[in-house]
Amino acid sequence: MIDLKVINEWINTNPLWVSIIKFIIILALILIAIHWIRRYLKKKISSTAIRYKAQKGIELVGYALLFFLAIVYFSGSIKDFSIIIGLFTAGLAFTLQELILSIAGSIYIFLVKVYKPGDRIEINGIKGDVIDVDSIYTTMMEIGQWVSSDNYSGRIVKLSNAFVFKGPIYNYSQDFPFIWDEFNLPIRYDSDIELAKSIIITIASETLSEYTTNSKTQWEAVVNKFYIEDAQVDPTLAISLTDNWIQFNLRYIVDFKKRRLTKHILNEKILTEIEKTNGKIILASTTVELIKIPDLKIKRDDAIKS
Question: Which CA distances in Å does 165 have to 169, 185, 226?
């Protein structure tokens, strides 16, 4: 049988342990509440983006509440809160600089909207799609490395949020989810140049019409928002002369996630149309023309006798 007198005596003689136990109970209740609310939101909210933001918001609010309660609970009174915060910050500033910078970075990312889950970014030399942003790390699905073009490598990269203060951040999708791309086509000098120009521009305009139409409105918004000159979003073709061929440079705008596929489609369609011209347009390649084989003189030694 539990002796209540012994328990009361232990409580009176160990106030610190009693406070710690009470705080652990409060901590457990808050964590359970956070977990329950997150599960409830996951079931009730169908939109992935809204559900993700709501769950992250509840998580941040819960952790902030725990931090506040810990300071108030162990400081004894709310009037000592500012002093406790000052001493606590000074101690952490020296020992946990990187951690503090990461937390500050997460706040900066959230407030300034540097990037968000779903964006394609390049930071600290790593390119990928952002799949999660928490209070310390940004998690990315890596692109490139040993894989060509914009394909996933399969590696998930966790990067400290502190890097937002340490270097440039390239965002492929924020405000303007399109990028400019280009490729070169070498055409022989004896080809029908006007026909080649017509084929390339026609195919590019038809294939990229959806991207061109959608990008014009968004590019106007970018021009109005930032101090930037207007730019050509329709496909453009530039020609330059080389020692071996006429180089056609096609420049166009494309969805940032469909660069590789779009380039494949354009090349395939252009090649098909060129083949239909029956030799009027010929793709060039590097060749070596042998003009003359030099005469070889061989001296025979008739003095050699068997």
Answer: 9, 41, 22
φ and ψ of 160, to 5 deg: -60, 135
**Residue 11 CA neighbour count, 13 Å, CB half:** 9
pLDDT tens string 117-126: 888 888 888 8
Burial call 268-284: b when 16+ CB within 10 Å, e when fewer? ebbeebbeeeeeebbeb
**CATH code, 120-171:** 2.30.30
Instruction: For residue 253, list its beta bridge partners.
Output: 180
Q: Whole-angstrom Cα distance, residue 162 to residue 118?
A: 20
Q: Which string of b and e fits 119-144 if b means at least 16 CB within 10 Å?
A: bbbbbeebbbbbeebebbbbbbbbbe
pLDDT on residue 62:
75
**pLDDT band, very low/low/confident/very high, at 78 (cuts 50, 70, 90):** very low
What are the tokens at 245?
A: 């061929």
Query: Which class would CATH give 178-275?
Result: alpha beta
> What does pTM read for this prediction?
0.57
Q: Give the span between the Cα atoms of 12 and 19, in whole angstroms.
A: 11
Q: How far is CA 237 from CA 201, 205, 210, 248, 270, in A?
A: 7, 11, 19, 7, 14
222 contacts 228 by C-beta, under 8 angstroms: yes
State percent of the chain over pLDDT 70. 76
Cβ atoms of 105 and 114 closer than 8 Å: no
Tell me how far apart the alpha carbons of residues 190 and 281 are, in angstroms, rounded to a whole number.
8
**Domain-wise residue ranges, the chain:** 4-95, 120-171, 178-275
